[in-house]
Each structure stands twice: as structure tokens, then as C-alpha cells.
Amino acid sequence: MNWSNWVDLGAGLLLGLGIAGLLARINRPSSSSPVLPAEKQDVVKLQQQIKQTQLAYEMAREMSQFKAGYLARTTHVLRSPINGLIGLQQLILANLCEDPEEEREFIKQAHDRTLKLLKLIDEILTVARLEHGTNKLDLQPRSLTELLQEVYDLTYMLAENRNFPFKVLLPESDLKVVVDSRWFKQVLINLIESAIAQIEEGNIYISSQTSSTDNFVYVWLDVPKQGILHSEPIDLISSKNQVAETEEENITFDPGMKFLLNQTILGVMGGNLEIVPFSLTTQQAEDMARLQITIPQFIS
After folding, report:
1. Distance between CA 42 and CA 121 in Å, rounded?
2. Residue at 19 is within a domain
3. Among residues 22, 163, 192, 222, which is most buried (max CB within 10 A)?
4. CA separation for the pair 234, 127 (Å, rounded)
5. What is the DSSP track for 79-140?
6. Helical spans, DSSP H, in the chain
């Protein structure tokens, strides 16, 4: 066998090995291919969409109930402290006080509850005047970064005292919104305080994003689901022979009433407050809910 035959034999071996390697690579399953078949991926995606739709429906239904019951909730909030006042006065008028000192203590309690009741009425009237236009808002372009930082500085200790991780993702420094800074910060503080008061554990996040379709900015408050407004039973028809005693510290707005007042304030500023579905991408996200504040963006 001469040298040319050896060359042909070597070339044939190399060609055969190359073809065999190529065929093996083609038949080998790709590591980048999806783990689940296409059908299973579609099912998982559909299940997530169904969960989001169900959550959106429940939130919309609850929002509708809160809006429809505004007058009922206002009456309910004011009735409780009034019942307490009536109970204290009945004790005094029926001469059930053991001595003048106890009578004076009941009078003091009635006075304190009257002041708290007056404060609740003033808050409702203030929001009503804003909505009616009697009280004017100072709508000015404000830096959203500065507003969120100020809100964080005023509320982070509330979260730290209860060991709740609280993070604020600040937007771009040049992003401005048209708001009344005092009322906008008050709304955010109210929402954060209400959420902290209702949750037992979990994280609190504040973030923002500009709208891609119009001149609005979304500010998101992400909290555990129990931190969002919940339904409280309201019974304005049934009467009781004995007036239920109301503790002095409980004379305050319930979460639903606070939500409606905050929503009204933002509406006067040209914005909105609503509960939107949280992105269901992880198990942890399924336990979260999102409050979305929509406010006008300043366009120079």
C-alpha cells in the first residue's frame, strides 16, 4: 500500500468520525429546550390567568360594595361613639354613680369621646369640601422621588417596630407629578399605617412606573393580602335594648372608610386609587396584594 492509499484511508476515517459526531449532536436532546411540553406550559399559563381574573373579580366586587355603602359606613362610624356617649349619660341620669368622683369621671369620658367624634366629623367634612371644591388643592409639579422619600422617612419606624421589611424603590430623579404634596403624602401615610395595623408578617414595598399609554404615573404599594381593606359587618337596622360599650381608643375609621376617603382625595387631584391583581409569578407573590395610585405626570 503506497502513501496515497494511507492518505485516502485517513481522510475516510476523519470524515466518518465527523459525520458520526454530527449525527450524535443532532439526536442529543437540547439542554435549552423547555422542561415541560408546550401543552403543559399552556395549561400552567392559563391557570395563572384564571387566578389573576378571579382575584381581579373579587377585588372589583369588594370595591363596588365599599363604594355603594359609603353613607352606611359613615353612619356606622359615627354611631359607635354616639352610643358610648348615650351610655355614659344614662348612668349619670339614672343616679348609678357611687359618688361624685365617679360621676365626674363619666363626664370626663363623655367629653373626651365627644372630641374624638368631632375629629371624625371634621375629617369627613374636610374631604367633602375638597370634593365639592370649597377647599382648593395646591396642585403643583413635585418630584416623585422627594415625595416618596419623605413618606418613607415618616413611616419606616412603624414598620421597623413590628419587624416588617419596608423598601422603597425610588424612581428617576427628574420624574415629576402634579399633586398637592401635603395631601398626597397624607394618603400614602394613611395606606401604609392601615396596612401595618392589619398584617402580622410580611414585606411592604413601594415602587412606581410611568404609563406607556397616557401621561400618568403609577405608584404601587405591595403588601400582604391581609393588609388590604377587608369587609366589616355593618348592621344599621337591628336595635338592642342595651347600648354596647365602645372603648375610647376604638373611636376611629375602619379600613374600608379610610380607603374611600383616600380614594376621594386622589380623585380630586385627577388620580385614582384601586386594588389591582399582583403578578402571580411565585408562591410568595400569591400572598401579596397591590394598591395602585394613579396620578398625573408633569410634562414640561
Report:
1. 53
2. no
3. 192
4. 22
5. HHHHHHHHHHHHHHHTT--SSHHHHHHHHHHHHHHHHHHHHHHHHHHHHHHHHHTSSPP--E
6. 3-27, 38-68, 70-93, 100-132, 144-161, 181-198, 255-268
Per-residue confidence (pLDDT) for residue 148, from 0 to 100: 95
Q: What would the grid cell of residue 87 be?
A: 351610655
Does 279 fall in a domain?
yes
Termini Cα distance of the chain: 88
Rounded Cα distance between 95 and 106, Å, is 12
Q: Does any domain span residue 10?
A: no
The Cα–Cα gap between 195 and 221 comes to: 10
Per-residue confidence (pLDDT) for residue 279, from 0 to 100 = 63
Tell me how long the chain is.
300
Counting the structural domains of the chain, the total is 1
Residue 211 DSSP label: -
- Reference 64, options 259, 249, 286, 246; nearest CA is 259
Model pLDDT, residue 73: 67
Instruction: Give me the pLDDT at residue 18, please.
Output: 56
Separation of alpha carbons 256 and 246, rounded Å: 19
The pLDDT, as a whole number, for residue 236 is 42
For residues 224 and 199, is the Cβ–Cβ distance under 8 A? yes
Instruction: Find the CATH number of the domain harbouring 210.
Output: 3.30.565.10
Q: Could you give the CA distance from residue 65 to residue 17 in angstroms, rounded to a whole number?
A: 74
The C-alpha cell at 71 is 353613607
The domain in which residue 284 lies consists of 42-239+252-296
In the block, residue with C-alpha cell 375602619: 254
Between CA 233 and CA 214 the distance in angstroms is: 39
Three cell numbers, residue 3 = 502513501
Residue at 60 is within a domain = yes
Asked whether 190 and 229 are in contact (CB, 8 A), the reply is no
**Which residues of the chain carry a pLDDT beneath 70?**
1-39, 52, 55-73, 229-251, 279-286
